[in-house]
Write a structure and sequence with these properties.
The protein has 16 helices and 13 strands. The chain is α/β, with parallel strands linked by helices. It has a single domain, classed as Aldolase class I (TIM Barrel, Alpha-Beta Barrel), CATH 3.20.20. It has an 8-stranded parallel beta barrel with strand order 4-5-6-7-8-9-10-11, surrounded by 8 helices. It has a 3-stranded antiparallel β-sheet with strand order 1-12-13, with no helix packed on it. Strands 2-3 form a two-stranded antiparallel sheet. Bound molecules: flavin mononucleotide. The site of flavin mononucleotide has 28 residues, from helix 1, strand 7 and helix 14.
């Protein structure tokens, strides 16, 4: 769960919040209700003459100078509890086996004690060669994190990149949240100069606009994860927590802003236009390999997914592997049907934007 609250709170409280951050998405329906990703408005053109064999389709790709087995990221989720340790271990083994990237959850909890740090560190133990992404909150950064602490966060998983999450909506609704975003961009700018690994800036489900992308590109970040609306709603998660805390105003705000945000497909299109030199990670409500293919066609370099990985990882490792194989089969099927032998070819494929995404045949 994205997290920015006070460093002085003890690890038990943080651990409890981390536990709820996993349990609420699993036990309550906190997915988007009226919002959608807008991916339903992206239609590929069927190719009746694909001129390729299904078993020769190549899903490998390069991102941030690294080769991946598929353009897939297990998006930042967890750490800080025993259950998180099991989940991170299972996700990491899948990332290692299939050549995916993987993010861990906000690592503030890992700074509090070594036992907590291990619940993130298991990701590296189980994925010695995978591309792992460390995670901190933007507001937490603005509040003050020393370079030593940032280095500790990176070293905890021997990270290949560091993600900074922007979660103003969540901070607003969270009972103990801190909606204080002054100075965040400047701190991100400092970070790009002081940290040697790539900095990825991500949302957590409300999307990145063209204006924000343009500001981020100017400060020299390495990639943007749009994490748009249409999937897990953090307003909804915090609404559930606000109800338990009997905070009626925050619970009301959580209900009102449940579907707030920029739909994922719209966010990719905006960011692609506004920050043409910055690679995009699609995320927010992606639920199958066809969604991935559409995001790649719109201009994303990688596709990330959070909640479905969590759900399957919680069931069992076998279910997680089966889910992963299904995702790959879906992606390859979409590639076969549009005649794309590799990921580069998806990026050049033709599609139609309908409904809310306007009309016309697009071929970038
Ligand atoms: C259980 C859970 C915990 C999450 N915790 C974090 C976090 O600690 N840091 C972060 O950057 N994003 C976090 N996220 C947000 C995801 O990385 C992702 O951006 C968002 O959930 C949209 O993807 P989805 O619709 O596939 O779930 C979390 C998501 C879930 C479902």
């Amino acid at each position: 769960m994205p997290d920015t609250s006070d460093f002085s709170s003890d690890s038990r409280i943080v651990s409890q919040r981390k536990k709820e951050g996993i349990e609420i998405p699993l036990q309550k329906n906190v997915q988007a209700r009226s919002a959608s990703t807008h991916l339903e408005y992206v239609k590929f053109i069927h190719n009746a003459l694909p001129e390729l064999n299904f078993d020769e389709i190549d899903t490998s790709t390069t991102f941030l100078n690294t080769r991946f087995g598929a353009p897939i990221i297990i998006d930042s989720m967890t750490g800080g509890t025993e259950m998180a340790s099991t989940i991170n271990s299972r996700l990491a083994r899948v990332a290692e086996k299939y050549g995916f990237a993987m993010g861990v959850g906000s690592q503030r909890a890992g700074l509090l004690n070594d036992k907590m740090a291990d619940t993130y560190g298991v990701a590296r133990k189980n994925a010695p060669n995978a591309f792992l992404i460390a995670n901190i909150g933007g507001a937490q950064l603005a509040k003050g994190l020393s370079l030593d602490e940032i280095q500790k966060i990176i070293d905890m998983i021997r990270a290949n990149a560091l993600a900074v999450h922007l979660n103003p909506l969540q901070e607003l609704i969270q009972p103990e949240g801190e909606p204080r975003y002054k100075g965040v961009l400047e701190r991100i700018s400092d970070l790009t100069k002081s940290v040697s690994i790539p900095i990825i800036v991500k949302e957590v489900g409300a999307g990145i606009s063209g204006d924000v992308a343009s500001k981020l590109e100017k400060v020299g970040i390495s990639a943007i994860n749009v994490a748009g609306s249409g999937g897990t709603s953090w307003a909804a998660v915090e609404k559930v927590r606000a109800e338990s805390a009997k905070d009626r105003i925050k619970a009301h705000l959580g209900e009102l802003f449940w579907d707030w945000g920029i739909p994922t497909a719209s966010s990719i299109i905006e960011v692609r236009e506004a920050a043409q030199d910055t690679p995009i990670i699609a995320s927010g409500g992606l639920r199958n390999g066809l969604d991935f293919a559409k995001c790649l066609a719109l201009g994303a370099s990688m596709c990330a997914m959070a909640y479905p990985f969590l759900r399957h990882a919680t069931e069992s490792e076998d279910r997680l592997v089966e889910f992963t194989l299904t995702l790959l089969a879906e992606l390859k099927s979409a590639m076969f049907l549009i005649g794309a032998p590799n990921i580069q070819a998806i990026k050049k494929s033709k599609y139609i934007l309908t409904g809310a995404l306007a009309t016309g045949v697009k071929n970038r």
